[in-house]
Amino acid sequence: MEPLTAAGEVVGICRDLLRIDTSNTGDPRTTVGERVAAEYVAAQLSDAGIESVLHESAPKRANLVARIPGADRSRGALLVHGHLDVVPADASEWSVDPFSGEEKDGYLWGRGAIDMKDFDAMMLAVVRDWQRNGVVPPRDIVLAFTADEEAGMEYGSQFLVREHADLFEGCTEAIGEVGGFSYTINDDLRLYLVETAEKGIDWLRLHAKGRPGHGSFVHDDNAVTALAEAVAAVGRHKFPMTITPTVRSFLEQVCDAIGIEFDPAEPELAIAKLGPIANLIGATVRNTANPTRLEAGYKDNVIPGRASATIDCRTLPGQAESFLAELRSVIGPDIEIEHLQQQAALETGFDGDLVAAMSAALRAEDPGARAVPYMLSGGTDAKAFTTLGIRCFGFAPLKLPADLNFSALFHGVDERVPVEGLQFGARVLDRFLRSS
Length: 436
Ligand SMILES: [Zn+2]
Prior knowledge:
- By secondary structure, this protein is α+β, with helices and mostly antiparallel strands.
- It has 13 helices and 19 strands.
- It has helices at 6-18, 34-47, 117-133, 157-163, 223-236, 245-258, 267-272, 278-282, 320-331, 353-365, 382-385, 406-409, 419-434; strands at residues 52-58, 61-68, 77-83, 103-104, 107-109, 141-146, 171-176, 181-186, 189-198, 200-209, 213-214, 288-296, 302-303, 306-315, 336-343, 346-347, 369-376, 391-394, 416-418.
- The strands form five sheets. The chain has a six-stranded mixed β-sheet with strand order 1-2-6-3-7-18, with helices on both faces.
- α1 (6-18) crosses α3 (117-133), α1 packs across α13 and α10 (353-365) packs across α13 (419-434).
- The two termini are 31 Å apart.
- The model has no long low-confidence stretch (mean pLDDT 95).
- Residues 83, 115-116, 149, 177 line the site of zinc ion (ZN).
- Zinc ion is lined by residues 83, 115-116, 149, 177.
């Protein structure tokens, strides 16, 4: 029998996790499975002699944290975090049962396969392997498995940071999701996108007020009309392009890799050449504001006094305020703005020992690997952990087939992870954590 390794164990653990339905509907009454998954993780850790503590933010909304002591306890700890919840899946749209953890065509299929039970499984497989072989990491490693990442993090990382900040004492750096995956340039060159920045979130509601009245009269102060004008103006508005240091560095590296000149005046020319990830990168050169919900009225022949719309706004690092000033000029002075949720953007440099360790670990397993920094247009648990002063990266290593449309799988139908890529990820994570 072959000796048990992290790469050997990671697929089975990932399958187990995929079979636990942890659908986060955004409504605590219908969200399921987080506690079951956290208990599974706790058992896997305890089986390897690692003690963990479960923290519930609400009934069944479970978060699990463990600390593995390192060789040099005077060094800052490294936080490794993954969320256990997933977005819901409509089984009728899938070609397999989204919670069966089925393995076929070289992939492990299921909701959460890349977002992000793959990385949760890598974390577990690696530390279990260490315990079997008596490996002590160079510094303390804090493992955090969170709830509620998919619906605002209130019951997950935000709760941990607010109520249990002591668990992260001494953590100086962190790695988590949406980074470390490969983007194939050719057979001999793969860029691995390490997330060093995230756009900020500003979900807001616009309120228009007018004079209520009868739908049959002449009426010049209609809240629905005022709101519709504001929503249309926001939806059509294109915010100016700003190239942040992270995006500039990414585009320079991509242009170098594909052999074209980077023109800072026309970054969208380079972005257009990125194929399936053009969408991902295109959203990181400007602020965006997308109308998502509308609400007004209660009867066909009554003009309501109020109307409201929700706008999903994403802002570049350092631009939260200038964005709002611009938004105000677009919607005019009479529309009221209510902030539903605001989370600051983050951005860190692509330098230092930790980044060097990422590059080295990737190259050791893939000689054609080149690590590059990029900005994520969405948000992750890093938003919460960065508020503790922790330097956050997205580094969940995954080697992907050249023809896989990876970004479409996030929250998508037939989400799946390549089995070999998952094993590759476990080996890279093992090397990285041993050398970080
Ligand atoms: Zn995720």
